[in-house]
Amino acid sequence: MEDFIRRMPKSELHLHIEGTLEPGLRDRLAARNGVTLPSRPAYDFHDLTSFLVGYYEGMSVLVHEPDFYELAYAYFEKAAAQGVVYAEIFFDPQGHTSRGIPFGTVIRGLRRAQLDARRVLGLHSQLIMCFLRDFQAEYAMATLLESLPYKDWIVGVGLDSDERGNPPSKFAAVFARARQEGYLLTMHCDVDQQDAVQHIRQAVMDIGVDRVDHGVNILEDSELVAEVKRRGIGLTLCPVSNRFVTDGTKSAELRRLLDEGVRVTVNSDDPAYFTAYVLENLVTVQQELDLTRDELVTLQRNAIEASWAPPAVRQEVL
Ligand code: ADE
Ligand code: ZN
Which fold, 2-308? Predict the structure, then answer.
Protein backbone atom coordinates (compact mmCIF):
# COMPACT_ATOMS: atom_id res chain seq x y z
CA MET A 1 0.00 0.00 0.00
CA GLU A 2 2.78 2.43 0.84
CA ASP A 3 4.11 1.97 -2.67
CA PHE A 4 0.65 2.69 -4.10
CA ILE A 5 0.40 5.87 -2.00
CA ARG A 6 3.90 6.95 -3.06
CA ARG A 7 3.12 6.45 -6.76
CA MET A 8 -0.29 8.16 -6.59
CA PRO A 9 -0.06 11.76 -7.89
CA LYS A 10 -0.80 13.89 -4.85
CA SER A 11 -1.98 17.41 -4.06
CA GLU A 12 -1.32 19.17 -0.80
CA LEU A 13 -3.60 22.00 0.34
CA HIS A 14 -2.52 22.67 3.92
CA LEU A 15 1.17 23.30 4.30
CA HIS A 16 2.83 26.19 6.13
CA ILE A 17 6.05 26.88 4.30
CA GLU A 18 7.66 28.15 7.52
CA GLY A 19 6.67 24.80 9.04
CA THR A 20 8.93 23.00 6.57
CA LEU A 21 12.07 24.49 8.14
CA GLU A 22 14.14 21.43 9.00
CA PRO A 23 16.71 21.69 11.83
CA GLY A 24 19.64 21.41 9.38
CA LEU A 25 18.58 24.36 7.22
CA ARG A 26 17.54 26.34 10.29
CA ASP A 27 20.99 25.96 11.83
CA ARG A 28 22.78 26.79 8.55
CA LEU A 29 20.70 29.94 8.08
CA ALA A 30 21.18 30.93 11.72
CA ALA A 31 24.96 30.73 11.26
CA ARG A 32 24.85 32.56 7.90
CA ASN A 33 22.68 35.38 9.25
CA GLY A 34 24.26 35.64 12.70
CA VAL A 35 20.98 34.76 14.45
CA THR A 36 21.20 33.20 17.90
CA LEU A 37 18.42 30.75 18.65
CA PRO A 38 17.31 29.87 22.18
CA SER A 39 19.03 26.76 23.50
CA ARG A 40 15.61 25.26 24.29
CA PRO A 41 14.60 22.59 21.72
CA ALA A 42 12.27 24.14 19.13
CA TYR A 43 10.94 20.81 17.99
CA ASP A 44 9.57 19.75 21.38
CA PHE A 45 5.99 20.76 22.26
CA HIS A 46 2.69 19.36 23.47
CA ASP A 47 -0.04 21.70 22.19
CA LEU A 48 -0.68 24.43 19.63
CA THR A 49 0.55 27.26 21.86
CA SER A 50 3.85 25.57 22.75
CA PHE A 51 4.32 24.53 19.11
CA LEU A 52 3.84 28.12 17.94
CA VAL A 53 6.60 29.40 20.25
CA GLY A 54 9.21 27.21 18.54
CA TYR A 55 7.69 27.87 15.12
CA TYR A 56 8.07 31.66 15.41
CA GLU A 57 11.53 31.39 16.95
CA GLY A 58 12.60 29.07 14.14
CA MET A 59 11.51 31.45 11.40
CA SER A 60 13.71 34.23 12.81
CA VAL A 61 16.61 32.72 10.83
CA LEU A 62 14.85 33.76 7.59
CA VAL A 63 16.19 37.20 6.74
CA HIS A 64 17.16 37.61 3.09
CA GLU A 65 15.40 36.72 -0.15
CA PRO A 66 17.63 33.66 -0.82
CA ASP A 67 16.68 32.30 2.63
CA PHE A 68 13.02 32.20 1.62
CA TYR A 69 14.01 30.71 -1.72
CA GLU A 70 16.01 27.93 -0.07
CA LEU A 71 13.25 27.17 2.42
CA ALA A 72 10.62 26.80 -0.29
CA TYR A 73 12.83 25.00 -2.79
CA ALA A 74 13.84 22.42 -0.16
CA TYR A 75 10.15 21.74 0.46
CA PHE A 76 9.39 21.43 -3.25
CA GLU A 77 12.22 18.92 -3.71
CA LYS A 78 10.96 16.83 -0.83
CA ALA A 79 7.35 17.04 -2.01
CA ALA A 80 8.21 16.12 -5.60
CA ALA A 81 10.18 13.10 -4.35
CA GLN A 82 6.98 11.98 -2.56
CA GLY A 83 4.85 12.33 -5.68
CA VAL A 84 3.27 15.71 -4.96
CA VAL A 85 2.29 17.32 -8.25
CA TYR A 86 0.39 20.33 -6.93
CA ALA A 87 0.78 22.27 -3.67
CA GLU A 88 -0.99 25.27 -2.19
CA ILE A 89 1.35 26.71 0.35
CA PHE A 90 0.58 29.06 3.22
CA PHE A 91 3.00 31.77 4.17
CA ASP A 92 2.86 34.03 7.22
CA PRO A 93 4.07 37.49 6.09
CA GLN A 94 3.45 39.00 9.52
CA GLY A 95 5.84 36.46 11.04
CA HIS A 96 8.47 38.33 9.03
CA THR A 97 7.26 41.93 8.65
CA SER A 98 6.84 42.06 12.45
CA ARG A 99 10.63 41.46 12.60
CA GLY A 100 11.41 44.16 10.07
CA ILE A 101 11.70 41.90 7.00
CA PRO A 102 10.02 43.56 3.98
CA PHE A 103 6.98 41.81 2.49
CA GLY A 104 8.65 41.89 -0.93
CA THR A 105 11.73 40.01 0.34
CA VAL A 106 9.53 37.17 1.56
CA ILE A 107 7.30 36.80 -1.46
CA ARG A 108 10.01 37.28 -4.08
CA GLY A 109 12.05 34.42 -2.57
CA LEU A 110 9.02 32.13 -2.44
CA ARG A 111 7.94 33.05 -5.96
CA ARG A 112 11.36 32.37 -7.43
CA ALA A 113 11.37 28.92 -5.78
CA GLN A 114 7.90 28.22 -7.20
CA LEU A 115 9.04 29.07 -10.72
CA ASP A 116 12.14 26.89 -10.41
CA ALA A 117 10.09 24.02 -8.94
CA ARG A 118 7.73 24.24 -11.89
CA ARG A 119 10.59 24.28 -14.40
CA VAL A 120 12.94 21.74 -12.80
CA LEU A 121 10.64 19.42 -10.84
CA GLY A 122 7.39 19.80 -12.80
CA LEU A 123 5.60 20.72 -9.56
CA HIS A 124 2.79 23.29 -9.71
CA SER A 125 2.11 25.48 -6.70
CA GLN A 126 0.18 28.52 -5.53
CA LEU A 127 0.59 30.80 -2.53
CA ILE A 128 -1.99 31.49 0.18
CA MET A 129 -1.24 34.43 2.46
CA CYS A 130 -2.22 33.84 6.08
CA PHE A 131 -2.99 36.51 8.64
CA LEU A 132 -1.89 35.87 12.21
CA ARG A 133 -5.08 35.88 14.26
CA ASP A 134 -3.33 36.78 17.50
CA PHE A 135 -2.40 40.17 16.04
CA GLN A 136 -4.90 43.02 15.64
CA ALA A 137 -7.30 43.02 12.70
CA GLU A 138 -5.83 46.41 11.65
CA TYR A 139 -2.43 44.79 11.10
CA ALA A 140 -4.09 42.08 8.97
CA MET A 141 -5.80 44.80 6.91
CA ALA A 142 -2.49 46.63 6.45
CA THR A 143 -0.89 43.35 5.34
CA LEU A 144 -3.72 42.76 2.89
CA LEU A 145 -3.13 46.20 1.36
CA GLU A 146 0.62 45.55 1.26
CA SER A 147 0.00 42.36 -0.70
CA LEU A 148 -1.97 44.05 -3.48
CA PRO A 149 1.01 44.82 -5.75
CA TYR A 150 1.73 41.06 -5.66
CA LYS A 151 -1.90 40.01 -6.11
CA ASP A 152 -1.15 37.96 -9.20
CA TRP A 153 1.19 35.78 -7.19
CA ILE A 154 -1.33 34.99 -4.41
CA VAL A 155 -4.45 32.87 -4.93
CA GLY A 156 -6.13 33.38 -1.59
CA VAL A 157 -5.91 34.33 2.06
CA GLY A 158 -6.09 32.28 5.24
CA LEU A 159 -6.05 32.75 9.01
CA ASP A 160 -3.73 30.91 11.36
CA SER A 161 -1.79 31.09 14.65
CA ASP A 162 -3.37 31.01 18.11
CA GLU A 163 -7.13 30.60 17.92
CA ARG A 164 -7.89 31.12 21.62
CA GLY A 165 -9.91 34.32 21.90
CA ASN A 166 -9.37 35.08 18.20
CA PRO A 167 -12.55 34.00 16.39
CA PRO A 168 -13.13 34.35 12.64
CA SER A 169 -15.52 37.26 13.29
CA LYS A 170 -12.55 39.40 14.43
CA PHE A 171 -11.40 39.40 10.79
CA ALA A 172 -14.76 39.77 9.04
CA ALA A 173 -13.88 43.15 7.47
CA VAL A 174 -10.44 41.95 6.36
CA PHE A 175 -11.89 38.88 4.67
CA ALA A 176 -14.67 40.93 3.04
CA ARG A 177 -12.03 43.22 1.55
CA ALA A 178 -9.90 40.23 0.49
CA ARG A 179 -12.92 38.82 -1.32
CA GLN A 180 -13.46 42.18 -3.08
CA GLU A 181 -9.84 42.10 -4.19
CA GLY A 182 -10.41 38.71 -5.82
CA TYR A 183 -8.73 36.46 -3.27
CA LEU A 184 -10.25 33.09 -2.37
CA LEU A 185 -10.82 32.51 1.34
CA THR A 186 -9.90 29.86 3.86
CA MET A 187 -9.43 29.84 7.64
CA HIS A 188 -8.00 27.57 10.28
CA CYS A 189 -10.62 26.17 12.64
CA ASP A 190 -8.23 24.12 14.73
CA VAL A 191 -9.17 20.81 16.29
CA ASP A 192 -10.81 20.82 19.73
CA GLN A 193 -10.32 24.54 20.25
CA GLN A 194 -12.67 26.33 22.59
CA ASP A 195 -15.86 27.25 20.68
CA ALA A 196 -14.63 25.18 17.73
CA VAL A 197 -18.08 24.66 16.24
CA GLN A 198 -19.04 28.33 16.57
CA HIS A 199 -15.80 29.25 14.81
CA ILE A 200 -16.58 26.89 11.93
CA ARG A 201 -20.10 28.30 11.76
CA GLN A 202 -18.78 31.88 11.60
CA ALA A 203 -16.24 30.97 8.94
CA VAL A 204 -18.77 29.15 6.73
CA MET A 205 -22.01 31.05 7.32
CA ASP A 206 -20.88 34.60 8.14
CA ILE A 207 -17.55 35.01 6.34
CA GLY A 208 -18.42 32.64 3.48
CA VAL A 209 -15.08 30.86 3.22
CA ASP A 210 -14.35 28.62 0.25
CA ARG A 211 -12.52 26.09 2.40
CA VAL A 212 -11.88 25.28 6.07
CA ASP A 213 -8.48 24.22 7.41
CA HIS A 214 -8.87 21.35 9.91
CA GLY A 215 -12.51 21.80 10.96
CA VAL A 216 -13.08 18.25 12.22
CA ASN A 217 -15.34 19.47 15.04
CA ILE A 218 -17.95 20.15 12.38
CA LEU A 219 -19.18 16.62 13.17
CA GLU A 220 -20.78 18.07 16.30
CA ASP A 221 -23.26 20.01 14.13
CA SER A 222 -25.14 18.01 11.51
CA GLU A 223 -26.65 21.14 9.92
CA LEU A 224 -23.17 22.49 9.27
CA VAL A 225 -22.07 19.16 7.83
CA ALA A 226 -25.02 19.31 5.43
CA GLU A 227 -24.13 22.89 4.49
CA VAL A 228 -20.47 22.21 3.65
CA LYS A 229 -21.59 19.21 1.61
CA ARG A 230 -24.13 21.33 -0.24
CA ARG A 231 -21.51 23.97 -1.02
CA GLY A 232 -18.74 21.47 -1.76
CA ILE A 233 -16.47 23.11 0.80
CA GLY A 234 -13.25 21.18 1.38
CA LEU A 235 -11.82 20.43 4.83
CA THR A 236 -8.03 20.14 4.94
CA LEU A 237 -7.26 17.63 7.68
CA CYS A 238 -3.77 17.10 9.07
CA PRO A 239 -3.72 13.76 10.92
CA VAL A 240 -0.16 13.63 12.27
CA SER A 241 -0.30 17.30 13.28
CA ASN A 242 -3.40 16.47 15.35
CA ARG A 243 -1.42 13.84 17.21
CA PHE A 244 1.00 16.55 18.36
CA VAL A 245 -1.39 19.35 19.24
CA THR A 246 -4.47 17.37 20.38
CA ASP A 247 -5.00 13.84 21.69
CA GLY A 248 -4.63 11.78 18.52
CA THR A 249 -4.77 11.74 14.73
CA LYS A 250 -8.59 12.05 14.69
CA SER A 251 -8.70 9.36 12.03
CA ALA A 252 -12.09 8.16 13.33
CA GLU A 253 -13.44 11.63 12.47
CA LEU A 254 -11.78 11.44 9.07
CA ARG A 255 -13.55 8.12 8.47
CA ARG A 256 -16.93 9.61 9.44
CA LEU A 257 -16.45 12.66 7.21
CA LEU A 258 -15.35 10.49 4.31
CA ASP A 259 -18.35 8.19 4.75
CA GLU A 260 -20.69 11.20 4.93
CA GLY A 261 -19.36 12.40 1.59
CA VAL A 262 -17.71 15.57 2.89
CA ARG A 263 -14.82 16.78 0.74
CA VAL A 264 -12.01 15.90 3.17
CA THR A 265 -8.32 15.94 2.26
CA VAL A 266 -5.13 14.75 4.02
CA ASN A 267 -2.24 17.19 4.46
CA SER A 268 0.93 17.75 6.45
CA ASP A 269 0.57 21.20 8.11
CA ASP A 270 4.11 21.77 9.52
CA PRO A 271 6.01 18.67 8.43
CA ALA A 272 9.44 19.63 9.79
CA TYR A 273 7.93 20.00 13.26
CA PHE A 274 5.50 17.08 13.10
CA THR A 275 8.07 14.90 11.27
CA ALA A 276 5.59 13.73 8.64
CA TYR A 277 5.20 14.98 5.07
CA VAL A 278 2.09 14.18 3.07
CA LEU A 279 3.18 10.63 2.23
CA GLU A 280 3.63 9.74 5.92
CA ASN A 281 0.27 11.36 6.73
CA LEU A 282 -1.48 9.25 4.12
CA VAL A 283 0.30 6.07 5.22
CA THR A 284 -0.71 6.78 8.83
CA VAL A 285 -4.41 7.14 8.06
CA GLN A 286 -4.36 4.23 5.62
CA GLN A 287 -3.02 2.00 8.37
CA GLU A 288 -5.31 3.34 11.09
CA LEU A 289 -8.46 3.10 8.96
CA ASP A 290 -7.47 0.28 6.64
CA LEU A 291 -8.32 2.57 3.72
CA THR A 292 -8.82 0.90 0.35
CA ARG A 293 -7.17 2.06 -2.85
CA ASP A 294 -10.51 3.52 -3.92
CA GLU A 295 -10.74 5.53 -0.72
CA LEU A 296 -7.20 6.81 -1.18
CA VAL A 297 -8.11 7.87 -4.70
CA THR A 298 -11.23 9.60 -3.33
CA LEU A 299 -9.03 11.60 -0.94
CA GLN A 300 -6.88 12.72 -3.86
CA ARG A 301 -9.90 13.54 -6.00
CA ASN A 302 -11.29 15.56 -3.09
CA ALA A 303 -8.02 17.48 -2.94
CA ILE A 304 -8.16 18.40 -6.61
CA GLU A 305 -11.82 19.33 -6.40
CA ALA A 306 -11.30 21.42 -3.26
CA SER A 307 -8.17 23.01 -4.72
CA TRP A 308 -7.84 26.44 -6.26
CA ALA A 309 -5.82 25.14 -9.20
CA PRO A 310 -6.58 26.78 -12.54
CA PRO A 311 -8.38 24.52 -15.05
CA ALA A 312 -5.25 23.74 -17.09
CA VAL A 313 -3.37 22.57 -14.00
CA ARG A 314 -6.40 20.60 -12.78
CA GLN A 315 -6.50 18.71 -16.03
CA GLU A 316 -2.81 18.03 -15.96
CA VAL A 317 -2.78 16.64 -12.42
CA LEU A 318 -6.11 14.77 -12.42
N1 ADE B 1 0.64 28.18 12.02
C2 ADE B 1 1.47 27.24 11.59
N3 ADE B 1 0.97 26.02 11.86
C4 ADE B 1 -0.21 26.22 12.48
C5 ADE B 1 -1.21 25.36 12.99
N6 ADE B 1 -1.09 24.03 12.93
N7 ADE B 1 -2.29 25.92 13.56
C8 ADE B 1 -2.41 27.24 13.63
N9 ADE B 1 -1.50 28.08 13.16
C10 ADE B 1 -0.41 27.58 12.58
ZN1 ZN C 1 -2.16 24.73 9.62
Answer: TIM Barrel (3.20.20)
